[in-house]
Structures are given as C-alpha cells and as structure tokens.
Amino acid sequence: MSNIFFYDTIIGRMTIEESDNCITYVHFGEVRRPDSNIMETDLLKKAGQELKEYFEGTRLSFDLPLKMEGTEFQIKVWNALLQIPFGETRSYKQIAEAVGNPLGSRAIGNANNKNKISIIVPCHRVIGANGKLVGYEGGLDIKEKLLNLEKNIIRERSDAENTVDSKVI
C-alpha cells in the first residue's frame, strides 16, 4: 500500500506518491490512485517542501530516496537524466550516447515517457537534436516553463555572483 498527497505549485497541483519509504510517483494534476491512501507522511512532506524550494529557486537538486520500476535500460536512462545539471539540457542523442546506445534516440524517448517521477528525475531537460522542445507528459508549455525557470535562476545566481559588494568612497 502506498500513500499519496497533493501539493499546489506554481505550475498547478501535483500528486506525489511514496511506497516503502521511497518516492515512486510525481504527477501533474491531482491523481487519485486506487491502491493508495491519501495521507501526508514525513517523506511526502519533505518531497513537497523540496519541490516548493525548487520552484522558488533555492533548491538545485533533490535529496529524496527514489524507487522506479523498469527495465535495465530504462533505469540506465533515468540515472543519466539525474546527471543533467540544473539549468542545462541534453538531446535524446546525447543521452543515448551516455548510456552506450548511440543510435537509440527513440528508445531514450520511450524511457523518458515511462518516467513516473517528473521534475525530480528531470526528463524535461531532454530536447530534440535541433534544440526544439518535444514530448512531455505535463505538456510542452509546462516543459518550457520548467526550463525557463531553471535558466532564469542560473542567470540570477550568475548576476549575483558578478556584483561587487565594495564601493568607492
């Protein structure tokens, strides 16, 4: 039996699920799963807080136990997604090369499609080889918002690092 809870974010309501003390599902919208209790556990509260911090720009990576079920290849792809730095993107081809299957761009897309832990496992950071946004469970408008959010946060941090705290008197 798993537990789910719903959190309101700047991109709308999200459903987070945990089972066996691991996050197993992050979905856009309010999704009521038949085998789940609606109950905010400590882990779900932590995941909700980390998502809130992500959207506020104070969290660049997540610190949550994750459990994903999939093929060996899918797990390899999801681990490669976790290596994409905040604010950066990779093409399907680059991910295919990273997992040792340079001709497997389409297989990368299929594995992304099976990702059940949106945002935390950042499949939104994967784009087409031509730089275009393609395929995303939350919709391309959400994908664009997430990428812009990350780029703006990186830009703001860079600008802050380049300011001088001293002044001439």
Features:
169 residues, Arc Repressor Mutant, subunit A, 2 domains, two-stranded parallel ribbon
Provide a descriptive summary of the structure in words.
- By secondary structure, the protein is an alpha/beta fold.
- It has 2 domains: 2-56, no CATH class; 72-158, Orthogonal Bundle (Arc Repressor Mutant, subunit A), CATH 1.10.10.
- It contains 5 helices and 6 strands; from the N terminus they run ββββααβααβα.
- Strand 1 and strand 2 (12-19) form a beta hairpin.
- Helix 3 crosses helix 4.
- The radius of gyration is 17 Å and the shape is globular.
- The relative contact order is 0.13.
Note the total helix count: 5
Largest sheet: 4 strands, mixed
Instruction: Specify the structural class.
Output: alpha/beta
Could you give the order of strands across the largest sheet?
3-2-1-4
Average per-residue pLDDT, rounded, comes to 90
Oligomeric state of this protein: single chain
CATH-derived architecture of the largest domain: Orthogonal Bundle
- List unreliable stretches of 5+ residues: none
CATH topology assignment of the largest domain = Arc Repressor Mutant, subunit A
| Cα radius of gyration in angstroms | 17 Å
Q: Short description, anyone?
A:
This protein is an alpha/beta fold and about 170 residues long. About 35% of the residues lie in helices and about 20% in strands. Strands 3-2-1-4 form a four-stranded mixed beta sheet, covered by helices on one side.
